[in-house]
Amino acid sequence: MNGTHVASPEPDTTVRITKMHGAGNDYVYVDCRERDVADPPRLARAVSRRHHGIGADGLILIRPGIGDTDCRMEMYNADGSRAEMCGNGVRCVGKFVYDRGVRKSPMRIATDCGVKTLDFTLDASGRVAAATVDMGVPVLDGPRIPVASEGRVVDQPLDVGGTTWRITCVSMGNPHCVVFVPEVTSLELDRLGPKFEHHRYFPERVNTEFVAVRSRRALDFRVWERGSGETMACGTGACAAVVAAALTGRSDRHALVHLRGGDLAIDWRPDDHVYMTGGAAEVFTADVDLATLYAATGV
Fold it and tell me: What homologous superfamily does CATH list for 14-136+280-297?
């Protein structure tokens, strides 16, 4: 749905939600092209609670498109903070909109960090199984990422929690700090992640990717996302990891990233754009009584 349609308020009683995931990076999606929701940050905190709520890495609202775009993605982290972009999330937005009638490939989706173009792979039933997303040109200039440094930050030392780490910083619409390690399985991310996220070097907090190199074309990956904690996957983070690996000579510009929730194929092409390919899955749709949800979660 295009144009400048203004959504009408939705009654603050029930909301229809759809649970979706890309490579295990799961969000609750709400179609706001016809009716809006009240207090998205509060709703994000409530639906994201794993043991008291629905359980998700955050909330994504699907809004009417702007200009020549087919829809707009509005994203909230699990703590209710606003985020600019989610690579796994935008694939799921594309699937949601395509499967419900906007049969366009490529599809243009507006985000807080610009328009993303998606090309779809369909299953035997004609529904979206996977998408390739043009994620744009990686930002390497420190103040634009942002980090508290001028110029590029490539394999530079940073003291975090009393340990000196070698970091490479990239923005793929949101800020990333990539750290290369021998292996990712034994990392204490619950301890390390918050120290990076809230470090004074990152004025808008940061997503931190811990990456181990399998080969020139394969990377192992774990991620701590600002506002959500460790997640099963991060699409923008996988893009940042391949950019960082290529910049430091650790990998080719095309690599398969093995995340806890699945694999993403990342291709940093000669036009300087990064392309991400991965699956998108719908889990369920349900009507949720908001009073019950807020009471159960204490939000």
Answer: Diaminopimelate Epimerase; Chain A, domain 1 (3.10.310.10)
